[in-house]
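YM 10:42: Necrosis inducing protein NPP1 sequence, as discussed on the call
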Amino acid sequence: MTFVSVILLFSCGLHYVLSGTINHDQVQPFVQPVPVTISEKAAVKYKPQLFIGDRCSSFPAVNAAGDITGGLKGTKDTDDCEKAPLGSQIYGRSAWYQDKWAMMYAWYFPKNFFGGQAKKRHDWANMVLWIDNPAVEAPKILGMSLSQQTLKPPKEIRRHWNYTYEGGSTVSTRVSHAELDKSGWIAATVSWEDGTYHDLIMWEQLTEAAREALNSADFGEAKVPFNENNFETTLGQSWPF
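YM 10:58: structure's back
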């Protein structure tokens, strides 16, 4: 192999690696598809609002081509992350787990906060909503689990209760990503303020390239809670019963 061919191969490989990561504000979110299956309809029905207060907005983490966000350096508070210019995204994945239907919703943030200040690149937050059966006419919400740093939800915010969902009423799930947990890191909590609905894309609705990217991407300590590596583990840690 000649010196020139080695240089060419190296350049092609470098381009391949770099093309997989793009600026945080250039990731095109997925448009929410029309739900078709029972699980998709249930996920849309219970899709939570997200309240962020004066924190970073949620951003899409991956596009249809499998390009992953590069996030933002953990400095300068909310600079460059107050609003996602192409739109935000909420990710979802559902499954039966110990005879209950688990619906995981997740958001990506380009910065992580500690003590009210930006400290690290990348953050994932998630909520697991537990219902009895997505196929019945009026499913019952049995519990909710909210994440803290980085993957494991603390026991004090694993909740279980039993009531009937009332479509079109004030009964709705609202999540805040504005408060700090006991250790000082920003965490997901129940919100008493209205938030924003973002386009939901379920795991099976993502392109194959996007799923592969989320399975292999390195977000540091901020693990993707719904990918093949972490989904079952996250459900087990979120079990509130």
